[in-house]
Amino acid sequence: MSAFEKLIKHSKKVSNFSHLASICGWDQASMMPAGGAEARSEAMAELSVHIHGLQTQPQLAEWFNDAENEALNTEQQATLREMKRSWQQANVLPEELVEAQSLAGSKCEHAWRSQRKENDWVGFEKNWAEVVKLSQEEAKIRSEATNLSPYDAMLEIYEPGTSSASLDIVFDDVKRWLPEMIDQAIEKQASESLITPSGRYPTAQQKALGLEVMQLLQFDFNHGRLDESVHPFCGGVPSDVRLTTRYNDSEFVQSLMGIVHETGHARYEQGLPKHLAATAAGEARSMGIHESQSLFFEMQLGRSAAFIERLASLCTQHFTNQDAAVFANDNLQKIYTRVQKDFIRVDADELTYPAHVILRYEIERDLINGVISYNDVPELWDTKMQHYLGLSTAGNYRDGCMQDIHWTDGAFGYFPSYTLGAMYAAQFMASMEQSVDVQGVIRSGDLTPIFDWLQQNIWSKGSLLTTDELVKQATGDVLNAKHFKAHLQQRYLNK
Amino acid sequence: MSAFEKLIKHSKKVSNFSHLASICGWDQASMMPAGGAEARSEAMAELSVHIHGLQTQPQLAEWFNDAENEALNTEQQATLREMKRSWQQANVLPEELVEAQSLAGSKCEHAWRSQRKENDWVGFEKNWAEVVKLSQEEAKIRSEATNLSPYDAMLEIYEPGTSSASLDIVFDDVKRWLPEMIDQAIEKQASESLITPSGRYPTAQQKALGLEVMQLLQFDFNHGRLDESVHPFCGGVPSDVRLTTRYNDSEFVQSLMGIVHETGHARYEQGLPKHLAATAAGEARSMGIHESQSLFFEMQLGRSAAFIERLASLCTQHFTNQDAAVFANDNLQKIYTRVQKDFIRVDADELTYPAHVILRYEIERDLINGVISYNDVPELWDTKMQHYLGLSTAGNYRDGCMQDIHWTDGAFGYFPSYTLGAMYAAQFMASMEQSVDVQGVIRSGDLTPIFDWLQQNIWSKGSLLTTDELVKQATGDVLNAKHFKAHLQQRYLNK
Asked: pLDDT under 50 in chain A at which residues?
């Protein structure tokens, strides 16, 4: 057996255990009763330790060395590159640091759940200082191993090949036009009237509607299912994708578009190359590309005129005894494109969302690079919020720098993926529209040409290409914020 | 760390992986879409290999040796005894035999699924000969390791401490009175009229009823849940018990009593000693004792007059727009105690069921002990069916010796557990009734005293006692078929 074959075999073993972790993780979030939590945590921790043990087996170093001297075709070379990347990431940190981070992160996150409600920055800061310190250590080690800046080395975990230099370029571009565009959109919408849902939308009806929308989006129910969880997500494995949503009986807007969003993630997973299943090259390219698929579904398809027409008609069929004026085409479009300056990222609309992300990016970049200190964050947050969205968070930590879970356990480098995803999605749509009549296809009810394009250009590529190669092959260009700008202008300012 | 402590730590590790296997197994049967099967099988097989690897780690032998010389209290001694038993069982068979059995069993079982439908004994026999041969080899090895007869060594897997000599005594007792009692019951019921369900019983209504019955039976929903699967079972882990049932819209009888049955299994699991969780002494005592709890719920409680009264009343509440005569107290009692001689074990009633089991026991005992050959089975089956139930299966393999899945993959020694369970259940009830007014308690709607008795005498004991000790401490006697006989006489002949 060649070294490459040994690596593939090993990779499949790791993948088998990860499969169990995914399914049990989904179960934990969507099925498990509260009393099962303790034993489950122990079992999952045992599994994590085992997987980490497999990923750090000493003989792997030799296999990687040997495999690099073996005759491999292009696909095998890409597979080797991705396996090695994931092996390096699993091996770069000393065990003691990983354990210290796990402890500090759990402690900080757990306390944050009540501290946030109580707006208790002083309490939070005590735990968070340790989390930041350990993340800086992590970044330093990753930096030495990769010859990247500390923050770029963290970014590499989520967005391989993306540097803060390139982020600065696209985000600076966005910063130049976004605040003004937000003001213009709000001004334009100020005179519009809009009817918000006020009736009861039973869960069973919302679910039936959601399933029909998933069918329209050609979700493969032979390889996945829809359930409920407090925090919606897309989990499971490519051959069995587990999607969740959350229903609120007093409105349908969130769960409906939430399902469209998660179906985008799901179809990416379902469309990954089957012949590379269970190897690193068969996995999704990056967090940003994953988000580009969910946002392609939610923003590019889901909020487009033709799709809203379909949703309006489906709502009328599924929600009986409701005020039909809510689902009227025009009204639904207004609901789903309403712009509002607000404090909270997770509730933000398409247009203001990038401001929330860029703010976080700039702060975490400087924090991890050691340019600022953890206790500078509240003031910086306030300044930037005022600058980008005209809102002050002075003294309001709860709705300011304490609002997100990410930083509480050290997930620095993750935030940019959201807006990268939105920008990639716009660029993919611009490119797709050159060969596909997207709105016409949606109106026909058979969206196959849209999914064929995504399958061919994105899903089937797995991680065979780098992100830049992927985007360039699909669109003829590397990431360019102009597509995102044009999309937002067209949608929010009719330009 | 003492050797005993090392063993406990190791046992918890194995238990953590078994936890994942249980949850993913439940998922496979109740949640997973068909397209997920292939990848799941691979992941589950990988996990099995890993668990087997842990159970056969070479250092365990030394730890067991050392632990036996350590100062242990009574509970620790019992824990050590049970850990050692399960270790010996995992280590006694050579890998090649286990693999050969797995292959032959899968092949035979897979082919059986169509061969049974086609009544194809000749085709089946070809695969089955190999399964029997390998099981005989297994029994021989187990026999040498335990100084038991080959069949008793197989029985030991499911019913530790139970010998065929003791089974012969109780089963011979049953055989003396059962055939006549069946005839008398059928004669008695011949003149009774009975209304069978004929309407539609929507799944949602059946489920709501089932959940209410589980509440009456004090199932702990903080540590478990109810779902659906083709073959109902009770899975999961003690802190999170996963129960399933199967709904048929055209009748409610099966799913309702099926839920009562599985709830018996579930409460046993939920009631196991928590301080011994994840060690062998904290597990259920045996298959027979497990079945005694499900049959205590289904037969002793579930079909008793007071419980049927409750069910009748609950059915009337849950099934609206149905013919209420079906749920009338008397009629429901008749439905649930109808006796009928038939070919199929899984459809058999309480009274004829032991005949099906004793027939299988006698055949598998002689087969594994080498007294008969695999191709003697059809004729023996026919003879015994005629003898016990007056039915001939000559030429009818499908409804005869090819009806069960157990033997197709070599699970010899399992069948006696069903009737042992029924007998233990009757004996537990006889004993409980000396201190608890069972029917009065059921009529009060608060069944706590019943469950307190079971918790104290059965559930909390885990595997700390041997089966004989457990039964003797709970009832003052080892297993005695007279309680079962008295119960059946009273229920079916009003004696």
From this structure: none
CB pairs under 8 A between A and B: 103
Using one digit for the tens of pLDDT, what is the confidence trace for B407-450? 999 999 999 999 999 999 999 999 999 999 999 999 999 999 99
Q: What's the predicted TM-score (pTM) here?
A: 0.94
DSSP letter assigned to residue B299: I
Interface test with B, best of A8, A15, A28, A32 (most B CBs within 10 A): A32
The pLDDT tens digits of the residues spanning B315-372 come to 999 998 778 899 999 999 999 999 999 999 999 999 999 999 999 999 999 999 999 9
| Distance of alpha carbon A182 from alpha carbon A488, whole angstroms | 10
Residue A274 amino acid letter: K
Which one of B15, B27, B30 would you mutate to disrupt binding with A, by most A Cβ within 10 Å of its Cβ?
Answer: B27
Distance from CA of A479 to the nearest CA of B (A): 35
pLDDT in tens, B259-307: 999 999 999 999 999 999 988 999 999 999 999 999 999 999 999 999 9
Residue A130 β-bridge partners: none
pLDDT tens string A158-171:
999 999 999 999 99
